[in-house]
């Protein structure tokens, strides 16, 4: 928790270092500063370390900095993004990046510290409600409520959400330990989110928003049935 990356190609934000050693989460923060785009991307690729907050100094670096922020957000979807700008004029295109905060240069120390603390708290709350997966050089935080089911195919897991399918290597039972108790085995190769059960029959189950049936083994049928009946009481 508290991993922060600062992209500051002209070293204009060097004086903000004290802000990272203040606040209630300071002991858990790690800050990595980069002046080179290539070094930052290499760090994300090789170290493969989760990051909570990216701060990009766009002063005299608008296009290049915006492109870097876009690449980082494509790789780490949950990233909290702070953009440091010198003026609002000509920044309309930046809003497609969906920044979590805009700060004017030079940032006020107190405003900067409050911004970091707020984003850290947001990231911490989201982290508690998300499944984190690392796959193909990308890090995904998937909110539990978006997961419909998980299918295991050999050593590969396929996590099905409302919008997409995310694949990663792992074991189904190991994944189950990381999920809330409303995720249940319905088959040795499937986990389902019991909150989204639409129809249960012998040997098969259908989830909300899906027409296809998922197999249910005899071993798990009674467990799922009793769970659904208990929720209905």
TrEMBL record:
Example GO molecular function: phosphorelay response regulator activity
Gene3D superfamilies linked to this entry: LytTr DNA-binding domain
Domain (HTH LytTR-type): residue spans on this chain: 131-230
Keywords recorded for this protein, A-Z: DNA-binding
SMART domains: LytTR
PROSITE patterns, per the entry: HTH_LYTTR
Domain of life of the organism encoding this protein: Bacteria
Protein's name according to its UniProt entry: DNA-binding LytR/AlgR family response regulator
Organism: Hungatella effluvii
């Amino acid at each position: 928790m508290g991993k922060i990356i600062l992209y500051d190609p002209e070293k204009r934000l060097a004086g903000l270092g004290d802000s990272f050693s203040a606040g209630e989460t300071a002991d858990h923060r790690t800050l990595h500063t980069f002046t080179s785009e290539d070094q930052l991307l290499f760090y994300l690729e090789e170290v493969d370390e989760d990051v909570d907050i990216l701060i990009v100094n766009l002063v005299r670096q608008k296009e290049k900095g915006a492109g870097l922020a876009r690449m980082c957000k494509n790789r780490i979807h949950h990233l909290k993004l702070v953009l440091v700008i010198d003026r609002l004029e000509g920044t309309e295109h930046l809003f497609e990046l969906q920044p979590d905060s805009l700060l004017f240069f030079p940032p006020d120390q107190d405003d900067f510290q409050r911004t970091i603390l707020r984003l850290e708290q947001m990231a911490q709350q989201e982290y508690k409600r998300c499944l984190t997966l690392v796959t193909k050089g990308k890090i995904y935080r998937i909110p539990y409520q978006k997961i419909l089911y998980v299918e295991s195919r050999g050593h590969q897991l396929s996590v099905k959400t409302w919008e997409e399918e995310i694949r990663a290597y792992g074991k189904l039972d190991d994944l189950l330990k990381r999920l809330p108790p409303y995720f249940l085995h319905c088959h040795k190769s499937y986990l389902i989110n019991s909150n989204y059960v639409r129809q249960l029959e012998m040997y098969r189950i259908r989830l909300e928003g899906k027409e296809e049936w998922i197999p249910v083994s005899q071993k798990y049928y009674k467990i799922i049935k009793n769970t659904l009946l208990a929720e209905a009481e």
